[in-house]
Amino acid sequence: MSFVYMKILESRPERYDIGMGLLTLGSLTKIKERIAEHTQSGNKVLDLGCGTGTLGQMCIEKGAQVTGVDANSGMLEVAKRNSPSANYLNISLSNLDEHFSDESFDIILSTLAFSELTHAERVHVLKQIKRILKKEGKVLIGDEIIPKNLFAKCFYYAFRLPMRLLTWLMTQTTTNAIPSFDEEVREAGMQIVNRKPFMLGMFILLEIKK
Amino acid sequence: MINWIKDIYQTLFRFARFPCEPETVTIGNPDKSSPVLVTCNFDYTVRHLKEYLKKEALDCFLLVVNTKGTNVWCAAAEGVFTTDIVLSHLKVYNVGELVNHKRLILPQLSVAGVKRKELKEHGWEGIYGPVYFTDLKEFLNNGLTKNKDMQALEYGYWERFKMGLSHAVFCTLVCIIPIFLFASDWWIQGIGLVWYFAFSMQLIEHFIPFERLLYKGLALSLPILVLTLTSITDPVLKTQATLGVIALGGYIGYDAQGHSHLGQNQKSGTIFAGMFAFLALVYGGTLFL
């Protein structure tokens, strides 16, 4: 691999927030703010695919105790700077079973992490989430989906291609829209209780309960 | 798409990532005692490995783990082909239920990322297989033992050629704007030089008696400099062309460090930056002539 390109890749975590903010035209920040509104002082919060730790920090400011999980050690280095009081674990989301006991979190959050997983991985992670979530706890997932409405779908394909290219040039990463969350959530034995679309339905914030 | 077309563009744009779906593939008619092979989800590797396993009629399970489309060696070095990723795949796809043993055959070049000790802590035995999958049949038939040939990484001329091709495409994309900005009348020669340096850095660099790849790139600019100095008469143009040739040779030599772990440890960044600052300064001076 090109050495210069390799160095660009290594600096990816530093540029991640800017790139993703661009890709979502600012919706990601709104989604994170909405998610953080659900947290209360004393809540035990698990941030799955915590990335640079910005969402975790919003929850900490509300008084929550946050644990961030990410497979990318470079991202966690940035997260430790952005949100030093959170706890972090450098593991894949599929390996949650080894690290967390049953019903140990009030709120489990995730933004743009599920779209990096395959269908089988998403179902596996959702099953683990069900196990470690407290009985009255909630799951908040903000992610990219393919809109159902025909007009929105046309706009999605026209708009997403140049934006994905631009984002890839900035961050050397991108997201892959999830065709449908409903079936996967059902397969994991949970239910979607609330859904809030963003950007013509290209992004969605789901509230899921056991 | 026809496989050979995929082979061509995946070789040309090797620096990009070409992921295929992570999965557990059943090859032939495996039973509970069949071997479990592990590879990354770089499409090029997976297509050729599946083809080989089918051709050799090796009954086995093939785990295509999610390295985001990066090849085994690079993924292991970058930290995306790790024990954690393999363990994650074993869980998600219930691999333990497919076989009655706990043995995984890993690519030898995954050694930097996938650790046998960590696998053992989770109840799995990791065995590093041969460097090249074309030795898998012999390796499996010999009771999972490797001879010296199976452990050797060859960097032959065909591999060097493919690497040169990929590096030339990448460097062309990087250099095309500067070439048009600084030498628009000479863009064909400029791109020709990029390809000369990129291929030479692969095909003949081992004959150049310097350790640093940056210096090898500069050494490769010598014959071009002789040509430049003897064929251009205008002194300002001659100076600018000389600077351009040195800059291209230096950049491509420096960039070639990414092709091996030895190169990545050369720490030539300061020399490279100093050299470019000097070249820029002299170029700036020529603008006043």
TrEMBL record, chain A:
<protein>
    <recommendedName>
        <fullName>Methyltransferase domain-containing protein</fullName>
    </recommendedName>
</protein>
<dbReference type="GO" id="GO:0008168">
    <property type="term" value="F:methyltransferase activity"/>
</dbReference>
<dbReference type="InterPro" id="IPR029063">
    <property type="entry name" value="SAM-dependent_MTases_sf"/>
</dbReference>
<dbReference type="Pfam" id="PF13649">
    <property type="entry name" value="Methyltransf_25"/>
</dbReference>
<dbReference type="InterPro" id="IPR050508">
    <property type="entry name" value="Methyltransf_Superfamily"/>
</dbReference>
<dbReference type="InterPro" id="IPR041698">
    <property type="entry name" value="Methyltransf_25"/>
</dbReference>
<feature type="domain" description="Methyltransferase">
    <location>
        <begin position="45"/>
        <end position="137"/>
    </location>
</feature>
